[in-house]
């Protein structure tokens, strides 16, 4: 069972993510656990103050390193101690899959001007969910919780459902459709209604490539492309030079047309 420990000044912000929907049900079934730790419980003053003014001056307050250290020391040993920060490593699907193999993740959620820089010496990893600044690390921590928890065995109803998701294959996901079969003049693609599973799989792969090329072409450099993918991308207008930059394999050799057997005229017996 994987345990998430969130060290935060606002545990009530993370409580809904831990208690509701799929994650809440997974906790009830003992598939994962969430531990919300109030940083103020580890202050050394009667007012439970955890921050102070920055040395050198400047606006805002900084969370003290000794508070973070005491809070972390109260926990069982963690496989990873993670600081949510704009300066961190980008949080990707690959990182989520790596973290899903652990047993205990401790995540530090900053506020104000963040943690004292010496806190970086207490952590094993720094993560960022994007190139923007928020008011605190709780929303970023919730993203990590959702992305990692859904990869744990038994959390999702279909154990294979996450394998075709965006980024799991290195590509964006293919478009999905459900009822009604036609809505405001737009119908469901006929291939999805025909019952040919092979044709559906080929269509979905082609659509994933098409979407990725149009919207996030930089992802193709890290995708595991097949010879058939190369053929599809060539058909979409990608140049051979572009395919070389993405380390795409050569396309499959063209199929040879089968020769028709010549019919031998029958000889009438005399």
TrEMBL record:
GO molecular function, one term: tRNA (guanine(37)-N1)-methyltransferase activity
Cleavable signal peptide: none
Region described as Disordered: 241-270
Source taxon at top rank: Bacteria
Residue ranges occupied by any tRNA methyltransferase TRMD/TRM10-type domain in the UniProt entry: 3-220
Family annotation (CDD domains): TrmD-like
Subcellular location: Cytoplasm
A GO biological-process term: methylation
Main location: cytoplasm
Keywords of this entry: Cytoplasm, Methyltransferase, S-adenosyl-L-methionine, Transferase, tRNA processing
InterPro entries, sorted: Alpha/beta_knot_MTases (IPR029028), tRNA_m1G_MeTrfase_C_sf (IPR023148), tRNA_m1G_MeTrfase_TrmD (IPR002649), tRNA_m1G_MTases_N (IPR029026), tRNA_MeTrfase_TRMD/TRM10 (IPR016009)
Gene3D superfamilies: 3.40.1280.10, tRNA(m1g37)methyltransferase, domain 2 (1.10.1270.20)
Swiss-Prot/TrEMBL catalytic activity: guanosine(37) in tRNA + S-adenosyl-L-methionine = N(1)-methylguanosine(37) in tRNA + S-adenosyl-L-homocysteine + H(+)
Family: Belongs to the RNA methyltransferase TrmD family.
Subunit details: Homodimer.
Name the record gives this protein: tRNA (guanine-N(1)-)-methyltransferase
Lineage summary: Bacteria, Thermotogati, Deinococcota, Deinococci, Deinococcales
């Amino acid at each position: 069972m994987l345990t998430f420990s969130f060290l935060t000044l606002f545990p009530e912000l993370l409580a809904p993510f831990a208690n509701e929907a799929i994650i809440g049900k997974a906790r009830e079934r003992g598939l994962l656990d969430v531990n919300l730790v109030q940083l103020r419980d580890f202050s050394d003053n009667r007012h439970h103050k955890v921050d102070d003014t920055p040395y050198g001056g400047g606006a805002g307050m900084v969370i003290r390193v000794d508070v973070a250290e005491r809070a972390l020391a109260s926990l069982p040993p963690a496989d990873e101690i993670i600081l949510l920060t704009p300066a961190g490593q980008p949080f990707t699907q690959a990182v989520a899959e790596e973290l899903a193999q652990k047993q205990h993740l401790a995540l530090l959620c900053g506020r104000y001007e963040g943690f004292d820089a010496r806190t970086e010496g207490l952590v094993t990893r720094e993560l960022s969910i994007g190139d923007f600044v928020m008011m605190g690390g709780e929303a970023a921590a919730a993203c990590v919780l959702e992305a990692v928890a859904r990869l744990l065995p038994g959390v999702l109803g279909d154990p294979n459902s996450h394998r075709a998701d965006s980024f799991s294959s290195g590509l964006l996901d293919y478009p999905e459709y459900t009822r009604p079969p036609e809505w405001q003049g737009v119908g469901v693609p006929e291939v999805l209604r025909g019952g040919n599973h092979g044709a559906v799989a080929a269509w979905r792969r082609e659509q994933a490539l098409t979407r990725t090329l149009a919207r996030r072409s930089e992802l193709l450099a890290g995708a595991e492309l097949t010879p058939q993918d190369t053929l599809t991308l060539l058909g979409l207008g990608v140049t051979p030079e572009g395919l070389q930059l993405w380390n795409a394999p050569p396309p499959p050799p063209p199929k040879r047309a089968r020769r028709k057997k010549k019919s031998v005229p029958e000889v009438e017996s005399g």
